[in-house]
């Protein structure tokens, strides 16, 4: 099957397979969201069905929950799990300190809660996600629908004082309607081009009324598994 994949899918696939090898019998595992995490869930499903691997999975979105169930993985809630041994998830960008931008799939809120409640977070990514400085990928910020335009104005005002190159903020759409997250919120995408101080920006964003969470994952990721289009994998 791998020979039929495009280079980018092969890169995601090999990173996901390497991460799946880290999962051991009896583990409670956070299951990320997105196309790379979907490969992970499929690979874990193969191990559950083929090797009798016994795990409990805590999905980070309804999409991942559905896929995990289809793959035969036992799905439990975070509250049932209490704490997780390992979370494996994709990312939109990662830098040399393993700080991340996440939320391209609009699941950043559950993803951050689940990753933070884990002994270890491992990111799986194709090599194109690696950056020197975060910010080329628009930073997703989850906001409650009530007064979202006021929240956007407050975000724009805050960005004027931050070390970023761009300040435009757009509402993520799903066709003609605003995108609605699994938690019933909207996503604002911040087109910043370059984030000079990601830690400070993450703190400032979360102080704005109406902001639920931002897609900067600072000091949360422990390891990155990078996949390449030729099938190579690097564990960082
Ligand atoms: C979803 C995410 C994803 O992990 C991120 O968007 C990467 O997705 P993909 O693996 O499809 O490139 O943060 O909210």
Q: Please, could you describe this protein's structure?
A:
- The chain has 236 residues and is α/β, with parallel strands linked by helices.
- 31% of the residues lie in helices and 24% in strands.
- The strands form four sheets. The protein has a seven-stranded mixed sheet, sandwiched between helices.
- The site of ribulose-5-phosphate (5RP) has 18 residues, from helix 2 and helix 5.
- It is an enzyme of class 5 (isomerase).
- One of its GO terms (biological process) is pentose-phosphate shunt, non-oxidative branch.
- Its EC number is 5.3.1.6.
- This is Ribose-5-phosphate isomerase A.
SSE diagram, text form:
Blueprint: H1 7-20, E1 28-31, H2 35-51, E2 56-59, H3 62-70, E3 74-75, H4 78-81, E4 86-89, E5 93-94, E6 100-101, H5 108-116, E7 121-126, E8 139-143, H6 148-159, E9 168-171, E10 173-174, E11 177-178, E12 186-191, H7 198-205, E13 211-214, E14 216-217, E15 223-227, E16 233-235
Parallel strand pairs: 1-2, 1-4, 2-3, 4-7, 7-15
Antiparallel strand pairs: 5-6, 6-14, 8-12, 8-13, 9-12, 10-11, 15-16
Helix pairs in contact: 1-2, 2-3
Bound molecules: ribulose-5-phosphate.
Protein name: Ribose-5-phosphate isomerase A
Keywords: Isomerase
Pfam families: Rib_5-P_isom_A (PF06026)
């Amino acid at each position: 099957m791998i020979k039929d994949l495009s280079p980018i899918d092969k890169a995601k696939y090999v990173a996901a397979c390497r991460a799946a090898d880290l999962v051991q019998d009896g583990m409670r595992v956070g299951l990320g969201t997105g196309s790379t995490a979907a490969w992970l869930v499929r690979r874990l499903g193969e191990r559950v069905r083929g090797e009798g691997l016994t795990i409990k999975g805590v999905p980070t979105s309804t999409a991942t929950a559905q896929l995990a169930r289809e793959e035969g993985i036992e799905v439990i809630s975070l509250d049932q799990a209490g704490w997780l041994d390992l979370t494996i998830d994709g990312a939109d960008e990662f830098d040399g300190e393993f700080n991340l931008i996440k939320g391209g799939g609009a699941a950043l809120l559950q993803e951050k809660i689940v990753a933070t409640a884990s002994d270890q977070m491992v990111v799986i990514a194709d090599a194109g996600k690696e950056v020197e400085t975060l910010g080329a990928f628009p930073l997703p910020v989850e906001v409650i629908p009530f007064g979202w335009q006021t929240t956007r104005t407050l975000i724009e005002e805050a960005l004027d004082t931050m070390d970023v190159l761009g300040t435009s903020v757009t509402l993520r759409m799903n066709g003609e309607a605003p995108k609605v997250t699994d938690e019933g919120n909207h996503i604002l995408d911040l087109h910043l081009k370059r984030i000079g101080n990601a830690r400070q920006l993450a703190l400032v964003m979360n102080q704005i009324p109406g902001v639920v969470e931002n897609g900067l994952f600072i000091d949360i990721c422990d390891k990155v598994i990078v996949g390449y289009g030729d099938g190579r994998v690097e564990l960082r």
